[in-house]
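Dear support,

I submitted the protein below through the web form. The confirmation email said the job was done, but the results page showed an empty box. After a refresh the structure appeared. I'm attaching both so you can tell me whether what I see now is the final result or a partial one.
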Amino acid sequence: MDNAPAMEALSPERREILETSEKWTEAIVANDAEAIGRFMSDDWIMVSNRGICTKQEFLRFVGSGELTHDSMELADLGRISIYGDTATMAARVTNIAHFGGQTFHANEWTSDVFRKTDGEWKCVLTHITPVAEIEVA
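What the results page shows now:
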């Protein structure tokens, strides 16, 4: 998705959240565990249909090569909200990932909660919900 029009409409604080998310995405697609970890708080967790994954578990999967990403794209920016030193970002993301020897083509709604600490936004929580496939009869 070309984010230029969306970026122009965002306030500077919201633009900062979106830019942080985009840089985090670049680190994920580069499969760089160290770089990925810089965008996460120490107590970050991801909640998905698989349960809860901690920062340490996620980075271990990436570092070992068990989890890799070929691509990750912002498909729909739902909303970015700022509440002082806390921000939320809801969006639809598509990605191609490899985990446990399988390839996944994911289309997901994601919610990220960020907290600004020492001038930097760090994600503290990610929630992933697969986009429902609608069957037409």
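Response: this is the final, complete result; the empty box was a page-load delay. The CA atoms of residues 19 and 73 lie 13 Å apart.
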